[in-house]
């Protein structure tokens, strides 16, 4: 025999563990199931009651669904009551069983007993499915005209559900609205208003019709406000607030887009907006709804200002709830009422210091919303002030907003840099990743401010070297990149900043246990850059880097080894470590373009524009090359990249010029995005996350393709000698990208290899790093024509476990004529991978007075003996004549 | 529109749950209730009574050991719902005479009835306590007679 409901609840309450509760419920469920099987009519209501409780606890109760149907079909009211309760709770999700109840409900709807009808309506209103409601719509319609207001309001709510689930039935109910709203019973009027709202939302065309209701609604609202105390619906001195705010909401829908209706409600809205107090929740609720209506309808500016002022009053009040809704509403009004909003800046800023995080979040959004070029300085300062006191989670939001402000509304570059440094020092560990790239780009394009920034960063570092890691990373990158400027200018200034001081600082930071490995990567890179920026400190830098060649961290170890080796290759060290090209972001670029039309003389802007043109010309030239016969299909990946670019260009050429310009811009952005990728790579390294993601791949491809494409284009440019300077700059940048990317690629390949051979000990790795055995030092002459001679020597070794051939390509010119626009391209079989460094120059002076050096690395990709063969494509201009030649080098005595 | 009304005790145990939306399996429902309750209970007194959760707003208010939580959509007047919660509590109080957790547990059918008199289909129908309780009194009288 199953328990009484009370006993079950007591039993569950007595359980100490979830397991015990489960046991009790399982046992009881089994008993209930048994009782159902025996068709135990007497205990059925009790069992369903228990199931409702069991369901609430989160246990299965499906087996009772059909019993609910039996209960609602029973004649007794008590049985029906539990049955309908079970129906709306247990059967809710089971459409089939629900549909089976349709006929029983239909019977109950026409019952004599209004409470039974009420039960059926309540169930329909809560759970009625679209099929049921469609079937029962005539009954519902009839009940809406019932004499009892108890049934009327319930039927109206069922109608609302019907409209929601069966939108085409809306016409059936439109005609009922007027009588419902005209009723005296508040419940009926309230449901009537909600019915209009749901009709209006389903069929927006009906709004025009319902505008006729506006005067009546205004009258109703007026009488509610003026009635004072009414015992029936009094809520702490306010007459039926629910009715009031529903009227206001309906007025909002009716007033939107209609000046006439808006005018009709203006008076009452002013009255509501100015008369109500703001101490009680009820009053605020109505005021809040009124403000929403004022802001949505076509009200005049005076009324709107009143509305904003009211919200501002909420903000300075004590209730957190009203602050919350006010901030939310103000956020919606940011775009429509910016002026009046800005007047309340003080109150909004004050909310940033609130104890409630939800309010602070809203306030932060709002502060950001009202930010513009005029107030950005003071508002950002406010945000910076609340940064140290905020919770960690919130700090991320604040720094993100500050950074966006810095990006979006900088009054000047100096402010931008100052604020960036401030954010970095105060909240560096809570900052999003791209801030470092923003910093570097700002510094890059402001040569005048570089020294200022450097000095500032350096002094902060000197005084407090254990700042957060992001700050350390950014400042070491900047100091490494522009170290020469710092040293030169500080000498002139008489400031006591010396290179040794900087190097000491870096050493201390490197040795500190509070510096993470991620930061150490940056410091190592800064050190190696220093070696090229300032002469005469190579030994000291070597000494600092040396111990890290054996560091536990593989990435640090690799960097140290590579950097250490770079000292031996001074001819490639300088270009590799050359100054990063100015980093141009998309938005900035657009702004600059606007500026250019007005002012063409600003150095960097001018360059940029020039560069864009250059790319266009060069890509056109690639098109020309495409037409030259005898272009061999090469297997080189780099060549493939070039071909890809060609097809792209072809497409572009068929479109109109504007399009092609856009396309070029995209390419240009692409190349700057490859810069970003480099930055990201650094960040990735910080996280020790070496994944090569898709976006990065794209960046690399573009970088490679463009680098080569531009190089090719150079050949046809001789007639435009006067522009060569710019182009060379551009090419240098691109090539540098290329080099960096290639290095990156190489690193990644190496890493893969390394991963495969993880069992090798670290020492072994070390040896391999430095091991470059078997030197084959006899240079081979691969090309000799027109006085130009290309020699290659080969060195077999391995790079991180992968067999590789290193080669230095030397090009000389013994003819009496200048060779210009020299460009060499290399292709190797698919089993190999070739990487060509940038050439040491473009032009070779006549009579053997100079040469161009280039380094080639060929890495074996598969594990089989391969005969080395190389295909060269040589481009140059001699005597005004452009020459492109392909040359196969197969006589290399190397099998590896 | 109201999406759900929950009454939970301060341990986070659900004492009453009414959903006006469909499509929640038992497991999902239990997970949702746990998550919302956990968040509400962890909030401090000084914080506002609103909580944003997924696409809905939860308005909650604490009365002694019981938390009343109402999930609503974007359009609903948050302060109005607070008033509604208060009205619900007052009505329960009036019917049960100083309502407590046990009253709800042992008379869950009555609690549901009161709720159904006040709100249907996510809309508020009646806020007058007398009107709400009237049908319940009739039932009580009838069942007394039956006994």
From TrEMBL, chain A:
Record Gene3D superfamilies: 2.60.40.1230, Leucine-rich Repeat Variant (1.25.10.10)
UniProt GO BP: intracellular protein transport; vesicle-mediated transport
Compartments where located: Cytoplasmic vesicle membrane; Golgi apparatus
Keyword Nuclease: no
SUPFAM superfamilies: ARM repeat, Clathrin adaptor appendage domain
Region called Disordered, residue ranges: 671-692, 715-778
Keywords, comma-separated and alphabetical: Cytoplasmic vesicle, Golgi apparatus, Membrane, Protein transport, Transport
GO cellular component: AP-1 adaptor complex
Domain GAE span(s) in chain numbering: 775-893
SMART domains: Alpha_adaptinC2
Superkingdom of origin: Eukaryota
PANTHER family registered for this protein in UniProt: ADAPTIN, ALPHA/GAMMA/EPSILON (PTHR22780)
Similarity comment text for this entry: Belongs to the adaptor complexes large subunit family.
Protein name: AP-1 complex subunit gamma
Organism, scientific name: Anaeramoeba flamelloides
UniProt lineage: Eukaryota, Metamonada, Anaeramoebidae, Anaeramoeba
From TrEMBL, chain B:
Keywords: Membrane, Protein transport, Transport
Cellular compartments per GO CC: cytoplasm; endomembrane system
Record's subcellular location: Endomembrane system
GO biological process, alphabetically ordered: intracellular protein transport
A Pfam short name: Clat_adaptor_s
Family under the similarity heading: Belongs to the adaptor complexes small subunit family.
Descriptive protein name: AP complex subunit sigma
């Amino acid at each position: 025999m199953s328990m009484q409901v009370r006993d079950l609840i007591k039993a569950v309450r007595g359980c100490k563990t979830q397991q015990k509760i489960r046991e009790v419920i399982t046992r009881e469920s089994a008993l209930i199931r048994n009782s159902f099987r025996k068709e135990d009519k007497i205990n059925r209501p009790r069992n369903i009651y228990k199931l409702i409780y069991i369901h609430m606890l989160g246990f299965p109760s499906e087996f009772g669904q059909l019993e609910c149907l039996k209960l609602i079909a029973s004649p007794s009211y008590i049985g029906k009551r539990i049955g309908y309760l079970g129906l709306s709770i247990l059967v809710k999700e089971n459409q089939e069983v629900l549909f089976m109840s349709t006929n029983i409900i239909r019977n109950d709807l026409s019952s004599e007993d209004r409470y039974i009808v009420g039960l059926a309506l309540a169930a329909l209103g809560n759970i009625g499915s679209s099929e049921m409601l469609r079937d029962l719509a005539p009954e519902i319609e009839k009940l809406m005209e019932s004499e009892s207001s108890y049934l009327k309001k319930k039927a109206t709510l069922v109608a609302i559900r019907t409209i929601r689930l069966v939108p085409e039935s809306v016409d059936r109910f439109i005609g009922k609205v007027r009588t419902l709203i005209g009723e005296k019973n508040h419940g009926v009027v309230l449901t009537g208003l909600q019915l209009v709202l749901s009709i209006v939302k389903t069929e927006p065309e009906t709004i025009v019709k319902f505008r006729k209701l506006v005067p009546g609604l205004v009258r109703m609202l007026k009488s509610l406000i003026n009635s004072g105390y009414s015992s029936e619906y009094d809520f702490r001195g306010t007459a039926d607030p629910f009715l009031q705010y529903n009227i206001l909401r309906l007025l909002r829908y009716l007033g939107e887009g209609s000046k006439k209706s808006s005018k009709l409600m203006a008076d009452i809205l002013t009255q509501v907006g100015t008369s109500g107090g703001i101490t009680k929740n009820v009053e605020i609720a109505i005021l809040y709804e009124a403000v929403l209506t004022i802001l949505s309808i076509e009200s005049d500016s005076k009324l709107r200002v009143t509305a904003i002022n009211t919200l501002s009053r909420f903000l300075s009040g004590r209730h957190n709830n009203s602050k919350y809704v006010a901030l939310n509403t103000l956020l919606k009004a940011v775009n429509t009422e910016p002026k009046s909003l800005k007047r309340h800046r003080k109150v909004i800023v004050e909310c940033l210091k609130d104890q409630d995080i939800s309010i602070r979040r809203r306030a932060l959004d709002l502060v950001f919303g009202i930010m513009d070029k005029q107030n950005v300085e003071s508002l950002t300062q406010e945000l910076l002030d609340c940064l140290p006191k905020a919770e960690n989670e919130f700090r991320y939001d604040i720094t993100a907003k500050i950074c966006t402000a810095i990006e979006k509304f900088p009054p000047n570059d100096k402010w931008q840099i100052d604020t960036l440094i401030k954010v970095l020092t105060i909240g560096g560990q809570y900052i999003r990743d791209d801030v470092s790239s923003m910093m570097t780009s700002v510094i890059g394009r402001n040569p005048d401010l570089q020294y200022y920034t450097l000095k500032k960063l350096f002094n902060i570092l000197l005084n407090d070297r254990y700042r957060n890691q992001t700050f350390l990373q950014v400042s070491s990158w900047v100091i490494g990149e522009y170290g020469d400027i710092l040293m030169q200018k500080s000498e002139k200034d008489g400031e006591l900043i010396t290179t040794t001081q900087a190097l000491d600082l870096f050493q201390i930071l490197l040795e500190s246990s509070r510096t993470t490995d991620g930061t150490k990567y940056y410091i190592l890179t800064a050190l190696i850059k220093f070696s090229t920026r300032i002469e005469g400190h190579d030994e000291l830098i070597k000494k600092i880097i040396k111990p890290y060649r054996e560091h536990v961290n593989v990435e640090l170890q690799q960097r140290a080894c590579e950097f250490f080796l770079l000292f031996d290759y001074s001819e490639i060290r300088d270009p590799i470590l050359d100054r990063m090209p100015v980093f141009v972001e998309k938005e900035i670029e657009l702004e600059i373009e606007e500026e250019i039309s007005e002012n063409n003389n600003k150095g960097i802007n001018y360059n940029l524009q020039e560069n864009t043109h250059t790319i266009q010309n060069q890509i056109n030239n690639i098109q020309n090359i495409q037409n030259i016969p005898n272009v061999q299909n090469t297997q080189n990946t780099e060549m493939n990249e070039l071909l890809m670019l060609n097809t792209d260009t072809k497409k572009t050429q068929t479109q109109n010029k504007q399009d092609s310009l856009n396309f070029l811009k995209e390419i240009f952005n692409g190349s700057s995005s490859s810069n970003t990728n480099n930055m990201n790579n650094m960040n990735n390294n910080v996280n020790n996350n070496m994944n090569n993601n898709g976006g990065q791949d794209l960046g690399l491809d573009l970088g490679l393709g463009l680098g080569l494409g531009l190089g090719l284009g150079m050949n046809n440019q001789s007639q435009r000698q006067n522009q060569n300077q710019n182009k060379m700059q551009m090419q240098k940048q691109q090539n540098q990208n290329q080099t960096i990317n290639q290095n990156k690629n190489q690193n990644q390949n190496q890493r893969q290899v390394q991963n495969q051979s993880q069992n090798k000990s670290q020492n072994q790795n070390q040896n391999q790093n430095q091991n470059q055995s078997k030197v084959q030092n006899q240079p081979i002459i691969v090309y000799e024509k027109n006085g130009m001679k290309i020699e290659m020597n080969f060195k077999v070794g391995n790079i991180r476990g992968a067999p590789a051939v290193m080669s230095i390509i030397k090009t000389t010119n013994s003819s009496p004529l200048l060779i210009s626009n020299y460009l060499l391209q290399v292709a190797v079989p698919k089993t190999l991978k070739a990487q060509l460094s940038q050439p040491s120059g473009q032009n070779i002076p006549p009579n053997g007075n100079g040469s161009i050096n280039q380094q080639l690395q060929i890495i074996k990709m598969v594990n089989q003996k391969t005969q080395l063969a190389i295909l060269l494509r040589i481009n140059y201009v001699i005597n005004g004549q452009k020459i492109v030649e392909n040359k196969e080098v197969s006589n290399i005595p190397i099998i590896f | 529109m109201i999406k759900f009304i929950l009454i939970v005790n301060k341990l986070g145990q659900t004492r009453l749950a009414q959903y006006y939306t469909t499509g929640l399996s038992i497991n999902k429902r239990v997970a949702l209730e746990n998550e919302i309750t956990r968040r509400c209970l962890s909030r401090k007194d000084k914080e506002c009574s609103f909580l944003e959760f997924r696409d809905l707003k939860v308005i909650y208010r604490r009365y002694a050991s019981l938390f009343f939580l109402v999930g609503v959509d974007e359009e609903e007047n948050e302060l109005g719902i607070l008033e509604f919660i208060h009205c619900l509590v007052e009505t329960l109080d009036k019917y049960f005479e100083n309502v407590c957790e046990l009253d709800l547990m042992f008379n869950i059918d009555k609690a549901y009835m009161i709720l159904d008199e006040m709100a249907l289909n996510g809309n508020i129908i009646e806020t007058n306590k007398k009107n709400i309780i009237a049908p319940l009194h009739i039932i009580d009288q009838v069942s007394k007679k039956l006994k």
